What does this fold into?
Amino acid sequence: MKLAHLSIPLALIAGLSSPGCSGGTPIRVDTLRLQVDLAPTAKIGLRTARLPISLSSALDFPVTVTALLPDGTVDTTFNGEVRLSVKPGSVQAVSGPNSEGRNVKLVNGVATGVVVSLLGAFGDARILADDLGYLPADPLRKPPPQCSNGLDDDGDGLIDFPADPGCAFGNDDTETGGTYSAGASSAIHFNYPRISDVRGLPLGGGSTAYPNQQVQMNTGWNTDDPAKCPKGKFPCFVFNSVVTRIAGDGFYATDVDAQAATGYSSVFAYNFSPPPDMRVCDRLKSFGGTSSDFFGFTEINYPTWELDQWDPNVRPCGVPEPHLLDVFEISDTVTLLKNTAALVRVQTSPLLDVHVTSKFGPGTPKCNLIDAVKDIWTCEIGADATNCDLNKDGKVDFGKNPEKTCAATCSADMAKECTEFSDYLGRGNFLLVLKDLNNVVSVVAANGLAANNFDAHALKGKPIGAFTGTLRYFSGGSQFTIEARCDADIVTDPSKKPLPSDQACVFPRAFNDSNDTSH
It folds into this structure.
């Protein structure tokens, strides 16, 4: 069996035409490319039978790295280090002869028996080799490595790392740059991550598994294997990732087929503004962006997508029914994290009372200084006096008294009936109280700014029928907030039921419009 490989040469013409360049300029012109060969025994999958993603344990791939001359023969004079990486994904370790960290030394132009351990690789991943001119040495060596010895070893007028671009790191024992030659293996066919993978479900779900990485997600749109589609309907959806909310700064999407089973299957895409031509009930054919955690809330930044626009005459809406939170789940962080960015609901029933807090008003609480030396205060919260912005500067100073004590007094209200009013004025946040038949009480933050006809303060102390919305998390205050999408998400009459998900906050488009669905 032939070794699988793909060589990628990098042009050096620009660097070679500038004799006055620094030590980062390639110093060799005869080694123009590296070749990375996967061993015949390596399991690389197929486009129609992709390998599973591994986020918790590394997968090993044996490779051979060869330095080639322009005529394709081995450069037997090359005895340098090359750095190994994978795109997309990460290299956990490189092992084998002459390996150190993520580097391997080629002897007479070849490195064999090299094993590259990959973590989190997805899609059509390739193992890369780059000649950076990096010669690792013990940073405590006497004398020190060239890139930390205080000398201009290559005579280019620049000294040591990071001033000299020929230095890859401080322990680099050469200030001269490498050839900057590169090579890539043939594709290793991994699955693309689903939303739950990006959310970090295999790692416990506390944070994204791809921090600050560009990811392309599996939305269920199958373009690889006709056998997975009904006859005559290729490509097709094998599962559905549905838009559940259009927000002022982006959109929310849910992997519907995984949500009920695993949770962690919804995510927010931060787009700076509402996505053009997107509607609730649209399906995502492609979806990618930079995954990051914003104060504990996983976001997809700079998102790209392609839509399957919803036509009610062709298919159902597909938005799942909200997860109904009970009085105990409101206090269960694991359950709440599972449903972060997903649709959730609190609802009055014969077993549960849901109402807006009874202490909720613009008045100023009375605060008294008890001990000036120890800066001890007491504050009295009233039914209409919960505004702890005592100096009226538009915010509560949680680090300075008396506003600190005022806010703490409201939060510690024994009956859990206090909504701090300046937070409601500034952000629209207020608290809902849940109480069951056994007098178990819990509270959850809610936000109704997207519901134009809703006034939470006007309902202070009153029961409501249901409050639905996407669940957002802010680790800075360890707070989960249910954010309504529109007026239909809030039922103020306890005797009425909320609309089903294929009707609430759903605004079908006119299909005679000319829409561009790729962004």
Notes: The chain has a mean pLDDT of 90. The radius of gyration is 30 Å. The helical segments are 13-16, 195-198, 256-262, 333-338, 403-411, 421-427.
